[in-house]
Specification:
The complex is a heterodimer of chains A (268) and B (560). Chain A has 268 residues and is α/β, with parallel strands linked by helices. Helix content of chain A is 38%, strand content 22%. In chain A, the strands form two sheets. A six-stranded mixed sheet of chain A has the order 5-6-7-3-8-9, sandwiched between helices. Chain B is an all-alpha fold and 560 residues long. Chain B is built from 22 helices and no strands. In chain B, α3 crosses α9, α10 crosses α11 and α13 runs parallel beside α15. Chain B is elongated, with a radius of gyration of 31 Å. The chains are: A alpha/beta (268), B mainly alpha (560). Chains A and B meet through β5 and α3 of A and α7, α8 and α11 of B. The complex binds adenosine-5'-triphosphate and magnesium ion. The site of magnesium ion has 4 residues of chain A, from α1. Magnesium ion binds next to α1 of chain A.
């Protein structure tokens, strides 16, 4: 549901991020990314490991300052939080129970206890962890912890959802179920999603658009508009001939970049 | 790691045992090294007079006050240092400079300024705790993974939220650790502080004992300090589970492991075998009661000690049976957990030795209150228990099992238990113990009868394999029959009260058992005989004890 406002929801303008390296040299993680994302769009970003995807999301989440360039994000509803993040590797708090973790963002927003517990319970149910609501993260598997991180972001219900490989550590079935949950939530509540993933299939299944990043320093190399009608059926999609065409198109670009990134890493 | 825990339990116990032995044998000078039994005696005097409670209480009060006065501001300031670079810059250099000074060195300075009273003692502890805790708390806040702060900020956390929802909870485990460290520190200090110009407290007790050259009292004081330290550690661990429940999540796993341990150990400790250890103790005590001497505390200790020795025997037995490969094909194998790989051989051996050590400790206490007779009796028993299946001349493997069991699970325990109560020997008690000895030997023999063929195959020499099936059966009749004959003889001699004849109600059951033994050779058919003989021992023993107790009560009423 694109908004009537012609301005993009997120505008990334020639963004550069440079880290100080170990030996005083400069590590350019993001090397000039320009990207506009419209309101309600689901954009997937793929790219070789270490190409700056996480860095890009961190800048969007205000956790990192751009070295040069700018980002802009429009808030349309002051009642709703502007952005929420699902971190690579969950980032849930070990000292809180699953329920407290999921309710965390709501608590900071001042949602009254009864209401936030109900919301947290709902999302814990959606990710299938009812039995673990009162458990501590140490008692959960890696995949379960990742689902808690997801529920926490959904419960927070931001306008822009920044997701960094949120389904990375999940088995195939859970991954499918949660992709479904994400799509439902995205369709129900107007929400702009920036979704980083390693999986081309996942990007094609979920995204309106797939952006392919180059090896470090990360730039946008290629963009694919995904033509499949919504609501999508993740299984039926795979048999669509356009799916394999697009997969091959993205893979061609990505393969060269992965090779380059490998060579870079070996060179040190 | 488990390995080490066992060893750490074992080594002090063994040390205490060796110490006692060395003194009893005259290798160590009693004046410089009072034996553990003497220290126990001193300690019980200190407990009896209430002095130890007064001194320990005052020391604890000083530690507690000093700890609160130093610890609470330290935690608060440490947290502030952790989250605020300005506070850190102000406090860190000063605290770091004072931290390494041994705080006991400050005592003279504090005494000069604050005098010799309570204030200076409490202050010394407070100051030392403060500097230790403040730095540790600050560093545990600084060590919180910065990712958590980022997560919190991405959900809109303000500075205040960052402190209460991230910095504080994330550093709680570290804070708990520094509190434990601080408490350990305070305990070390209190003793030193009380050496100087105190009129009471546990440190004073130790110092005064030194001045009086009362080394037993000095050691008793040290034991109390160790005990207090241990109790506080346990209490702080509990506090940690309350404050840091997310780490205690692993506690639940630990509990599950506990249950698993019980499941594994239960058959190995042979729980049904303990009536054999308890009944003779109770018999000895009831005979002593009949003779007019009964001390319930000593009775309780004797029972616990006897169970420990039995436990030790069972475990060491299990260990050596495994070593010798005896149980490999045991059909009804008691235990066998080592063969099944459920328990490591060393675990079983270590637990057995630890049980012996506990039994020995209790024995030492009883020695300290009743004299050396129990010492020699106990040493003899432990040695027999150990060499029952261990060592080159394992009694159980050279056909002496029944005789050893007869003597030690019968007369020896009864006499020991009697002696602990009455502090004298008595021939009637020896005679009255014979029926129990016969029956307990019958239990072992029933086991050997059942396993006769298997044992022979594996070359395990028991009296049964040496005698052969026919004569082994006669041995069973002799043991069971001997029970009743010896009982009737003691009654006829006027040694045992006629009320003990109440045990004759078990005679039909005994005859039934002898019939089965005469008719059967199959292990499966003989299995119930083993169980029933053990039951007979329990029923007969209980009735015998009842007989003595009733006779005692009737006598006691007669005096009224
Ligand atoms: N704090 C930092 N200091 C220095 N270099 C950094 C820092 N964070 C990231 N980098 C470097 O920046 C580059 C991009 O990192 P980033 O985490 O954004 O990669 P990514 O695309 O998310 O990789 P992956 O797919 O493996 O998660 C990497 O080469 C990394 O080594
Ligand atoms: Mg990443």
């Amino acid at each position: 549901m694109p908004s009537s406002n012609m301005q993009p929801k997120i505008r990334i303008d020639n963004l550069h991020v440079v880290y100080p390296g170990r030996r005083g040299e400069q590590v350019e993680a993001v090397g000039g990314v320009t990207l506009d994302i419209t309101d309600g769009e689901l954009v997937c970003i793929v790219g070789p490991s270490g190409c700056g995807k996480t860095t890009l999301l961190r800048v969007l989440a205000d956790l990192e300052q751009p070295t040069s360039g700018a980002i802009q994000m429009l808030q349309s509803n002051p009642e709703r939080p502007l952005k929420g993040t699902v971190f690579q590797g969950a980032g849930i708090f070990p000292w809180m129970t699953v329920e407290q973790n999921v309710a965390y963002g709501l608590k900071l927003r001042g949602v009254p206890p009864v209401e936030r517990t109900a919301t947290a319970r709902h999302w814990i149910g959606e990710i299938g962890l009812e039995r673990f609501a009162q458990a501590y993260p140490a008692q959960l598997s890696g995949g379960m912890q990742q689902r808690v991180g997801l529920a926490r972001a959904f419960a927070f219900d931001p306008e822009v959802l920044l997701m960094d490989e949120p389904f990375g550590a999940l088995d195939a079935q859970t991954r499918l179920l949660l992709q479904q949950t994400l799509l439902q939530q995205w369709e129900r509540r107007t929400k702009t999603v920036v979704f980083v993933t390693h999986s081309i299939e996942e990007a094609l299944t979920l995204g309106d658009r797939v952006c392919v990043m180059s090896a470090r320093p990360g730039r946008l190399l290629h963009e694919v508009s995904v033509p499949f009608a919504r609501p999508r059926d993740a299984i039926a999609l795979r048999t669509d001939p356009r799916f394999s065409t697009l997969f091959a198109e993205i893979w061609d670009v990505l393969r060269d970049e992965v090779d380059r990134a490998r060579a870079d890493e070996v060179a040190g | 790691m488990n390995h080490n825990r066992w060893l750490s339990l074992l080594s002090p116990l063994v040390l205490v045992g060796l110490w006692e032995l060395a003194v009893q044998l005259g290798w160590l000078n009693r004046v410089f090294f009072p034996p553990p039994s003497e220290v126990f005696q001193t300690l019980s005097q200190l407990i009896g007079s209430g002095q130890i409670f007064r001194d320990a209480g005052i020391s604890l009060l000083r530690v507690g006050l000093g700890f609160l006065l130093g610890g609470i501001p330290a935690v608060i300031l440490g947290l502030l240092m952790g989250v605020n670079p300005v506070v850190r810059a102000l406090v860190q250099p000063l605290a770091a400079a004072i931290y390494p000074i041994p705080k006991i060195a400050l005592l003279p300075l504090i005494i000069v300024t604050l005098g010799l009273g309570e204030v200076s003692k409490v202050t010394t502890i407070a100051v030392s705790v403060f500097f230790l805790v403040v730095l540790n708390v600050a560093s545990s806040v600084l060590q919180v993974d910065p990712r958590y702060f980022e997560v919190a900020r991405s959900f809109g956390a303000r500075r205040r939220d960052l402190f209460w929802t991230v910095a504080l909870p994330a550093s709680l485990p570290g804070i708990m650790t520094s509190i434990k460290l601080g408490m350990g520190f305070a305990l070390t200090l209190i003793v030193g502080v009380e050496f100087v110009g105190a009129e009471n407290g546990i440190g004073w007790l130790i110092w005064q004992s030194y001045e009086l050259y009362a080394i037993d009292r000095m050691i008793a004081g040290l034991v109390v300090v160790a005990l207090i330290g241990w109790l506080i550690t346990v209490a702080l661990d509990e506090l940690e589970y309350l404050l840091v429940p997310w780490q205690a999540a692993s506690v639940r796993v630990r509990e599950r492991r506990m249950r698993e341990h019980v499941r594994l150990w239960w058959p190995t400790i042979r729980p049904w075998s303990y009536t054999a250890a308890i009944i003779p103790v109770l018999l000895g005590a009831s005979i002593a009661a009949y003779d007019g001497a009964i001390d319930w505390w000593r009775l309780f200790l004797t029972i616990v000690g006897s169970i420990s020795i039995q436990l030790g025997t069972n475990l060491v037995n299990e260990y050596y049976d495994d070593r010798k490969g005896i149980d490999k094909v045991q059909v009804f194998g008691i235990g066998g957990a080592i063969q099944r790989g459920e328990l490591a051989a060393w675990q079983v051996l270590a637990a057995g030795l630890a049980a012996f050590a506990v039994g020995s400790l209790i024995g030492l206490y009883l020695v300290s209150v009743t004299g050396p007779f129990i010492f020699w009796l106990g040493l003899f028993s432990v040695a027999t228990g150990f060499f029952y299946t261990a060592g080159p001349l394992a009694l159980a493997y050279i056909g002496l099992g029944e005789i050893a069991v007869f003597i030690f699970m019968g007369p020896v325990i009864v006499i020991g238990s009697y002696y602990v109560q009455a502090e004298k020997l008595s021939l009637p008690a020896v005679l009255a113990s014979l029926p129990v000895g016969f029956l307990v030997a019958a239990i072992l023999h029933a086991n050997n009868l059942r396993d006769l063929d298997i044992d022979r195959q594996f070359g395990k020499r028991t009296l049964a394999t040496l005698l052969g099936r026919g004569r082994a059966n006669i041995e069973y009749y002799v043991l069971v029959g001997g029970t009743y004959v010896s009982l009737i003889v003691t009654v006829l001699l006027g040694v045992a009260p006629w009320l003990t004849l109440i045990t004759l109600v078990t005679l039909p059951a005994a005859i039934r058992l002898m019939r089965i033994v005469a008719a059967e050779t199959e292990p499966h058919a003989l299995q119930p005989v083993l169980r029933q003989t053990a039951k007979l021992h329990m029923r007969f023993g209980s009735l015998l004890i009842c007989g003595w107790v009733f006779a005692w009560l009737i006598d006691a009423l007669g005096y009224l």
